[in-house]
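thought: fold this chain, then report.
action: predict
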Amino acid sequence: SYQGERSPEGAISCTSCKAGTYLDFETKTCIDCPRGTYSEERAVSCIQCDVMFYQPMKGSGSCIPCEAVSI
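observation:
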């Protein structure tokens, strides 16, 4: 199996974890990234949103930029 891919025992090919999920090596399943994080396809971990970005939903493939605020 390749990084971020999984396959059941006896499988003839691997399946990639989709964006917004990561491969849990212990359970060998794709798990949704928690809120405040994201992942690209075939990820083995989720990435925290950068400063000035957020993600209120779990299982996301990107973060949302914060609105610019005038002072």
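thought: worth noting. The longest strand covers residues 21-24.
final: tokens above.
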